[in-house]
Structure formats: structure tokens, C-alpha cells
Amino acid sequence: MTGEPDQDGPGRSERPREVKHSAGFYANPRPPVSLYGRQRRPDRFMLGLGKLAARIEPLTSRWRPGHPPPAPAGDLPVRVARVERPAPDVAAMTLLPAHPGVVLPYWQPGHHVDVVLSGGVVRQYSLCGDPADRSGYRIAVRRIEGGVGSGLVHELAEGDVIGLRGPRNAFPFARAQRYLFVAGGIGITPILPMVRAAHAADREFTFVYTGRDRKSMPFRGELPGVGGEGVFVRPDDEYGPPDVEELLADLTPETAVYVCGPAPLINALRTRVPAENPFFSERFSPPPIVDGRRFEVQLGRSGPVLTVPEDESALDVVRRVRPETAYSCRQGFCGTCRVGLLSGEPDNRDRPTGGSPRGAEFALCVSRAEEDERLVLDL
Ligand code: FES
């Protein structure tokens, strides 16, 4: 996940894997099993220290007007420990637990976290550090012109405390004999840990990194095997726009394809990759509406009735009259826009990757209904 609501979730061959952690996990992490398989006893000194820190932290928080308030209860509080600029409009942040003694939850390449920002704004960003390092997470966010979430992230300073939810996985990194990775610009964030993992496991892979120009492409210096066979840094101003035939030239039947980048790049690859190749993608914008029909939503049993046209989402229509309606991913996986469904037959198109099951709810951002169906929403 890479900026404003920006992700396309799992490809056509796998459901996302849900990763659950209770709030208690963060406050009272269970120590890992020892090398010899024995369960370790919790370190009482560290637990005591953690409890003391939890009491003191609210008194010492560096909250300043204009900066995020302390993380709400239930979210994992993390401190911005380091801010770097790997490209002119990209902020890369190292996030450490706000309380000592807390071990961050396990993650794998492809996982993202929900970042809780000022005003309760929630955005998803891919983890792009080292999964083996549980002492901290790293995210990188490109500033989008007019983007609320990316703007708030770029205002964060070292020492600020924010809340995290997750990690969750909507872009599963599956075992394959061979990989083709394609990243466009900030789409490098979920792909980078995958390339590193494939490189470390001695898997055969091809990695193509595209972008406007070299200076706009973050983490070029961190690519494993760069300069060697199979890793291509391919800025448009030197090579022209990426050519799909060229990208797929060496595709073998056992190759899994992973792509994260702009929608046209993903769509072009999706339509050309043969059905037998596992295909996984993550995008920067809401998916296009496929097979949309006009339907109605009523806001409460006696509220106004709104028409949702074929080519618009219910979220866009509802937000015109209720601009405060919350949303986050706009791609059907975070659950933020789900509202109660009082009556009507929905065509549910969301695919929750965590949190509560859908139940009698309707995801405004992607779900729809049959022609002229009226859904009564608990709004
Ligand atoms: S905004 Fe995330 S599911 Fe709708």
C-alpha cells in the first residue's frame, strides 16, 4: 500500500489471509519459544517496566497542536523514530513501539498496516522493512497532490506517536518456483521485501522497477542483486513507457507474477498474463466499477433516497450529502465504510482482510445492488 487509498488486494488465485492480534497482545506480549522449543516465562522486570511506561506515557507524550493525538486505546501505539526522504516527495518512516518491552507483531512480505492519523483518518501502507526485525516497522509514503492521508503522514515528525492496526495481508506472497516482480514508482514498497525474500531464498526471479525518472524512484540503493542478471531499473525518461510484451518476454508457466503500480500498468499485465500463471496485484486507486447497475440507497428508514449511477460508488453518492462518512481504502478490504443494512438485497463486493465479519452490513465503497434495487442503510 502506497499512498492515498491505494490497493488492489489479492490477485485472482488466492483469498487474503487474515492475521489477528488482540489488543492485549501489545500490552502483554508472549515471549517467543526458545531455540530448544521450551516456552519461556515472561520477563517480570520488562513487564513491570512496560506497565510503568504505559502510565507515564500519557503525561510525557509530545503531543502538540497540529500533530496527531496519542493513539486511541486498542491501536498499537508507535513512535516515529526516524524520517528519511528516499525521493523528493517520499517520506520513509521507522516506527518503534511507544512502550518499552513490546515486540511488534509478525509480518510477511505483502503485509500492510492501517495507520491512524489526526482526526481519525486511517490509511493503509505496506511494510517495506525487514520482516525479521521485530523491533520496528518501516513504511514509505509518496505525497499525493490534495491527498489527505499522505499529507498528514508528511507532517509527522520524529517523536510523534501514532496508532497502528494490523498488520494484515491483502497481497499474499505465495511460494513459487519462479517470480516476475514489477514495481511502478512507490509501488516498490510491498515488492521490495518480496524481492529480498526471493533473493535470500535463492529463487529464480526477474524484477523490473519502473518510474518517471531515477530520482523519483525510492530505495534504488536497496535492491538486492542490482546490476546483476534479473534486476532491471527502468525509468521512463531513459527507456520510454514500459512495454507489456517486453515485461512478459521471459514468462514461463511456473512463474508467479507480482505487480504494484499504477492502474494502467496492472490492467495491461493482468489481461496479458496467461491464466495458468498466478497473478497478484496491488494498486494505487479504487478499482474500476465492473458491471455496475443503477440502484438506490435510502439513508435510514425515513431518510432521503439517493440514486447510485452505474459508474459511481455508493460512497461517492452518500458523501455528497453526508461528507463526514468515513472511508479509508476505497477498495473493499478495510471495513471502514461498512454501514448497517436494514433491508434490500446487496451485491457484496468487499473482501474483508481483518476485523469483524461483514454481517448485515454494506461496504459503501465497492458493494452494489441489482438494477433499481433499494437498499435501506442504517445512516
Ligand atoms: S473504505 Fe475500506 S472497505 Fe470501504
Give the overall pLDDT as a whole number: 80
CATH H-tier superfamily of the largest domain: Translation factors
Beta content comes to 25-35%
Question: Quick one: how many beta strands?
Answer: 18
What is the domain total for the residues? 3
- Sheet of most strands: 6 strands, antiparallel
For the record, the CATH class of the largest domain is Mainly Beta
Give the proportion of residues in helices: 10-25%
Principal-axes shape call: globular
Bound heterogens, unique: FE2/S2 (inorganic) cluster
CATH architecture of the largest domain: Beta Barrel
Q: Which sequence of strands runs across the widest sheet?
A: 4-3-6-1-2-5
Unreliable stretches (pLDDT < 50, length at least 5) are: 3-43, 49-72
Number of helices: 8
Structural class: alpha/beta
The CA-CA distance between the termini, in Å, is: 29 Å
**Rg result:** 22 Å
Give helix and strand order, one letter per element, not per position.
HHEEEEEHEEHEEHHEHEEEHEEEEE
CATH fold-level topology of the largest domain:
Elongation Factor Tu (Ef-tu), domain 3
Protein name: Ferredoxin-NADP reductase
Keywords: 2Fe-2S, Flavoprotein, Iron, Iron-sulfur, Metal-binding, Oxidoreductase
InterPro entries: 2Fe-2S_ferredoxin-like_sf, 2Fe-2S_ferredoxin-type, 2Fe2S_fd_BS, Beta-grasp_dom_sf, Cbr1-like_FAD-bd_dom, FAD-bd_FR_type, FNR_nucleotide-bd, MRET
Cofactor: FAD
